[in-house]
Amino acid sequence: MLTTLRIRHLALVEELTLEFPPGLVVVTGETGAGKSVILGALSLVLGERADRTLLRAGAESCTVEAVFDVRRLPASFGARLAELGLEPCEDGQLLLKRTFTAGGVNRQFLNGSPTTLAVLAELGNGLVDMHGPHEHQSLLHPARQLAILDAFGGLPPRVDALAAQFRRRRALEAEKAALIVDERTYAQQLELLRFQVAEITGANLRADEEEALSREHQRASNAARLLQLGQAALNLLSEDETSLVNQAGAVGRLLQELQRTDPEAGALVTQHAQALAAVQELQRALTRYLDRVEVDPERLAALEERLNLLQSLKRKYGPSLEAVRAFGEEARRRLAQLE
Fold first, then answer.
1. Is the pLDDT confidence value at 103 over 70?
2. Closest Cα to residue 54, out of 2, 109, 106, 126?
3. DSSP state of 295
């Protein structure tokens, strides 16, 4: 049911909003009052071709909007909107909008989504039935005749179910056509998918391995330098004659002598003991660290090979290992469909 019609800059109308209540509405007026303009506006918003001569004098564009209450329409209407990729009707309200300019630019919208004149005309056939001496009545359209016959026989639910199956079949046919173009292409797709699946599966990817491998590779590639630095630090701590531990021992002896002379210096001896314990713990930790550092060319080569493989897979299939794994799953699914 048409509930609202808004017209702007069409023929003699500068701006007009009509609200239609439920039930029968009769619009009367003498010749030239604008009754035909209202019908023309409704025709435009339902997909009729626009004529620039319909623009109001001095106006650059014309706009017509119509709001329909579609709550009583069958569910197939909403399904058709979804099939066309259009926004659904909120609160059972369908909003149509048509704009055209003096330059010949046409724009049409359905529930805010851009659409085509053909779609407006298709949906308009089920919304409005215009009868006039020079208008084609919808009863003359075979599709409308079938709809009336189905309604008389109480068949709309079965028709909707059949239409859903038909749409599903067409979607499957489209998917099949996208997968298979010809025998040669089919064989090429199979070979490519098998290679992709085998390559990704054979890599045994783990989502968190790249970061750990990068850290290990950095240590392995700098192992000699790490050993050099660590050993130098260890020498300064404990192994040289002038090491920190030896120097701390001398300081400790001096502080003990100081304590014997002045008992109040005992706190300094305690602090020295704590500092020396910290230095000794640092020495042990550094020794354990150096024990773990190993110059291993074979391990370094293995790490580089693994990292190169991961980078190669990311260049081919996605920016991250997670994306590569997702690509592999999709390739496996498509391969199963083709085989």
1. yes
2. 106
3. -
pLDDT, position 136:
52
Spatial separation of the C-alpha atoms in residues 230 and 76, rounded to whole Å: 76
- Inter-CA distances, 208 with 9, 202, 203, 311, Å: 63, 17, 14, 14
pLDDT tens-digit map of 240-265: 777 787 777 777 788 788 888 888 87
> Which helix H or strand E contains 64, and what residues bound it?
strand 61-69
| Whole-number Å distance between alpha carbons of 110 and 98 | 9
The CATH number for 2-128, chosen from 3.40.50.10090, 2.60.40.420, 3.30.390.50, 3.40.50.300, is: 3.40.50.300
Segments making up each domain of the chain, as ranges? 2-128, 209-328
Report, as an integer, the average pLDDT of 28-46.
82
Question: Rounded to a whole number, what is the distance in angstroms from the first to the last CA of the chain?
Answer: 51
Q: What is the pLDDT of residue 74?
A: 83
pTM of the model: 0.42
Q: Partners of 106 in the beta sheet?
A: 100
